[in-house]
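Instructor's aside before we start: the two examples that follow are unrelated to each other. I chose them only because their records fit on one page, so don't look for a connection. First example below.
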Amino acid sequence: GFVHVISFIGAFCMSLTSFVFPPLMHIALLKRHQDEEDEERCSTSQPFLSSNELERFGSDEHEKMRDRRAIQVDSALLVCGIFATVFASFLTFSDLLHNAER
């Protein structure tokens, strides 16, 4: 009874903490970083760009591509984490029901 309820709660929480929250937090941090950069770029916009700003613009595009790829990977990991959480919770809950019938 009680042990199985605690194991269900533990499996659910550990799956969330291990597999769902890390990619979710990384996506949130990347989004915040992108928003801050966009805000900074808008506040310092000038009609003409210096050579240093042109070089930075090129590296910004490369960084945006890298961030986009990271978000894609994090999204895939998030889906796998949600699946792992549902699967672990299902197994633990079915074990809880199976032992409750005895």
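Example two begins here.
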Amino acid sequence: PNDFDVHQKVWVGNLPSEAASEDLETHFRQIGDPLLCVVVRPGVGCICYATAEEAATAISAYNGSEIGGAAIETASWAKKGAVRPTATPLSGGGGGFKGGAKG
């Protein structure tokens, strides 16, 4: 997906865990001709189109549609795809208190 302009990409969320790239292609081919359909991580996919206009049409046409019984979300990759989950570093150090009252 990195070979495409961000405006040609559609972020797809709420995919069922068993969804595969082929499921995305079958679904998104109903309107337009996606160049690439890929599940990028569980629950999230990326659809790439030849133009930003096709991507925008897909976003509005497919938002709320169903794949595998799940209502999917669609958005511009520029808005959703750029958001990366941030990990909070765990501080090292001593272990916590374990155990209850003694005695």
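The first strand starts at residue 9 and ends at 13.
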